[in-house]
C-alpha cells in the first residue's frame, strides 16, 4: 500500500464502514440538536431555554469525560460503540414520542419540556463516551503509517455531516414537522447500529485491565501534561476555539453590521465549513507530517488573522473570504492535531487521552460562545471579535516560544518507524 496514496485508508473495508457509521451518527446528532432547539423555543418562546439545552448537554459531558476515558481503555471498542449507539437510539425514540401531537396535547407543557431536558442530559453523558471510543477505534482499524490519511478522511466525514445535518433538519421541519423529522433521526441511528456490527471486535490494548480508577485517571492526565507535543496541540485547539469564536456572533454581523439578512447569514455560516472541508480533502494528497509543529502554529496563527479581518470588515465579500480562510486554516490544524494525538498516544491510553482532549477542547465550544457573548456585551461586537483573534495570535507565539518540542515537531520519523514495524 503506497504511503503517498491519498485514498490509502479508504482501501480498508472496515474503515469505510467506520466512516459510514460516523457520518450517520454525526448527521443524526446534529440534526437532532437543531430539531430540539426548534421545539423547545416553540414551547417556551424564551431564548434562555435554548441556553439551557447547551448547559444540560455540556455539564455531564465535561464532568464524566475522564471517567469515560478510563472505561474506554478497559473495554472492547466495537461493542462499546454499539452500546453507545443503542443508548442514543433510546434518546431519539424518547424525543419522537415526546413530540407526538397526541402526547403534547395530553401532557402539561412543563412536563414535556423537563422530559426533553432530561434526555438532553442523558445525551451529554453519552457524548463523553463517543469521542474516546471513536478515537480509539480508528487506531485499531488502520495501520499507524496511515494515521494522517485516516485522520483526514475521518475529519472530512465529520465536517460534512455536521454541516449537512442542521441544514437537512431545517428542511424536514419545514416539510414534515418536528415529529417526523425525529423519526428520520431514529432511523439514521438504527442504521449506524446495524452497520457497526460489520466491524470486527478489537483486542483490548490496555495491559492494566482492572486498574483502580484513581490511578488510571491520574496516569492519563499526567501523560498529557508530560507529552509536550500533545499538550501543545490541545492547548492551541482550546484557545483558538475559546477566543476565536466569531461564529457565535454571526447573527449580529449579518443583521446589524453587514446587513445581509437571513440569506447572507446562511452563506456566512457555511463559509468556514466549506473552507475546512476543501482543505482536509487537499491534505489527503499533500503530506503534513514534515515540520508538523511549525505547520500547526502557522495554521492557527493564520486562523487568528482571519478572525481579526472578519471583525474589522464591513464589506460582505471581505467577511466571506475571511471566514472561508478561517475554515481553511482550521482544517489544516484539525488534521495535524488529530495526527499528533494518534501517533503520540500509546494504544493502552487512547481513551483517557481522548477524554482529556474532549474535556478541554469540547468544552471550549460552549465556553467560546459564552466568551464571545460576554465580551461583545462589555466591549462591543467588533472589538470582541478582534480581541479574540488577537488572543489567538498571542497564544500561538507564546506556545511556540515556550514549547520548543511542539515547534520542532516532525512526524516523518514517527511514520517511518511505524512503517518498518508493520
SSE blueprint:
Layout: H1 13-44, H2 47-63, H3 65-74, H4 77-98, H5 101-106, H6 109-141, H7 147-176, H8 178-196, H9 213-226, H10 228-243, H11 250-257, H12 261-282, H13 292-312, H14 316-344, H15 350-379, H16 381-402, H17 404-407, H18 412-421
Helix pairs in contact: 1-2, 1-6, 1-7, 1-8, 2-6, 2-15, 3-6, 3-9, 3-15, 4-6, 4-8, 6-15, 7-8, 7-12, 7-14, 10-13, 10-14, 10-15, 10-16, 11-12, 12-14, 13-14, 13-16, 15-16
Description:
The protein is mostly helical. The chain has two domains: 1-200, MFS general substrate transporter like domains (Growth Hormone, Chain: A), CATH 1.20.1250.20; 210-422, Up-down Bundle (Growth Hormone, Chain: A), CATH 1.20.1250. The protein is 82% helix and 0% strand. It is built from 18 helices and no strands. Helix 1 runs antiparallel to helix 8 (178-196), helix 7 packs across helix 14 and helix 10 (228-243) runs antiparallel to helix 14. The chain is globular. The N and C termini lie close together (11 Å). The relative contact order is 0.15. The model has no long low-confidence stretch (mean pLDDT 81).
